[in-house]
Structures are given as C-alpha cells and as structure tokens.
Amino acid sequence: MRLDCAASCEIIKASIYKTFSQGGYNFGLNTASTNTGFCNPHKNKSCDKFLLQKIEHLALKYNDQSSYTWLTLFAAAHDHVSYQPDPQRPIVIMVYRLKNGSRVTEILEDIAEVYDSVLPPWKNYGNITIDGKSFTNSSPEETQKQIQDMLENGFEKEAQKVAVVYDFDKLPSCSVLTFHNYCNNEDAPHKNVAIILTVTGTDENLPSNPKSPDLEEAVSKSFHEKWKDCPEELPPGKIDAMLSRVANNVILLR
C-alpha cells in the first residue's frame, strides 16, 4: 500500500531529522567539495549521497539558514534519487521568503540547480520562471491558460525540469487550480520535475519556530484568508486539498 504524499514525506523527514540529530547528517559542517554535473539514479545507486553532498554544500554556503530547511529539501527529493523508474509525485517545495531577504533569489537558483542535477534527462536546459505579480491584472481564466502553456512548453517541449513560481500568493485566487493538477500526487502529469513556489511574508507574521509544521500552519491560515474570495472554485474543503499538494514541504528562507 502506498502512503499519501503528506504521510510519506513526513515519515521521511522524521527519519532524516532523527538521523541528523544523532549525528548522521552534518548539514553545513561537511567541508568536502560538492560534486558537479548530474547523477542518474537508474545508473548510479549513490545518487542519494550525491544529492546530500550538493545540499550540504548549500548549507555551508548559506550557513545562516535553518538546518530544517536543508533536511526538508533533501527529504522532498528522496523518491527521485532512489532507484524508482516512476516516482510517485513531483518534488513540490513552498518557500516562505521574507521581504528583506536579499539573497533569497540566489538561494532559490542554487536549489533549482541541485534538483536539476538529479532529474532526467540529466542535462541543463534552464528553468521555467513564472512571476505571479505579472498576472495581477489578468483574469483567472487567462492566467490559468498562460501558466499551463508555460509549464507544458517547459516540461514537455524544452525538457526543462524545474519550475520556479515567484510570488505564488500574488496570483489571482481562482487561477491557482492549475497547480492542483501539476502538484497532484499520483495523478500529476509530470513527476520527474520540481516545482518551487514562493510566498512573501514579514518578520511580524513569522512563526516563532521555523520548523516546517509551524510554517505550514501559518501558510494555511494565510491562504484560507486569501482564497475565500473564490468560494465556488475553492470552498474550504478544496482549499485544504490544494494546500495538501502545494504546501506539504514548506521552508523558510531569510
């Protein structure tokens, strides 16, 4: 029996966090140089170590970020670096970024590069970049169509593997249903991809504990408030279903 995304990801994160707390993973403390290039898990059974080393390199480079951030990024890609011809779901990360986080864009680009290195076809064709603020004056229908076209063109035609959606919280409320499909679990149209969504917050509404469950609760509260102006397409139950897909792995970047 397969576990749903929320359950399996939480089990993986808990296992990794336990190992980390016992000294098994030394995020930010491993001074070995990171591997370069790509790792194909169908040919190399050590891609989990390859991914770990890449993330350790980021933890060392950005040592002011929480270790839980790096643990979550590693756990979210666990299925994709294991020997699995057909991953159960795409990698989906929601990034809670602070307005004054001057290096956040740089960190996001590095995270995208890390995921790009372990996803087929193991060549760098660049990332899909979507700016949520650019759709402020667009209708939900027009926004949905444009985003779907961008994602399909990138994933299907250009063989791009990572989509970064800046200011996801600025998209017209009713338009976000596009991501209900792309961030779905077993029914997602593209599973060997990573989708990174950013939302912007402030120190004032930052949870006291930056670990993922607290962030997920803060994000959930924010989106329940924002999406209530789309009651037909997004009733409360559907908002919860949306959040189970887009906000299952939430990290904080300062």
UniProtKB/TrEMBL annotation:
Any one GO BP annotation for this protein: membrane organization
Pfam families named in the record: LAP1_C
Protein's cellular compartments: Endomembrane system; Nucleus envelope
Keyword Disulfide bond carried by entry: no
A molecular-function term among this protein's GO annotations: ATPase activator activity
Domain called Torsin-1A-interacting protein 1/2 AAA+ activator: residue spans: 44-228
Membrane topology, as annotated: Single-pass membrane protein
Keyword annotations of the record: Glycoprotein, Membrane, Nucleus, Phosphoprotein, Transmembrane, Transmembrane helix
Chain segments annotated as transmembrane: none
Principal location listed in the UniProt entry: membrane
GO cellular component assignments: membrane; nuclear envelope
InterPro entries, A to Z: LAP1C-like_C_sf, TOIP1/2, TOIP1/2_C
Family listed: Belongs to the TOR1AIP family.
UniProt-recorded name of the protein: Torsin-1A-interacting protein 1
Organism of origin: Holothuria leucospilota
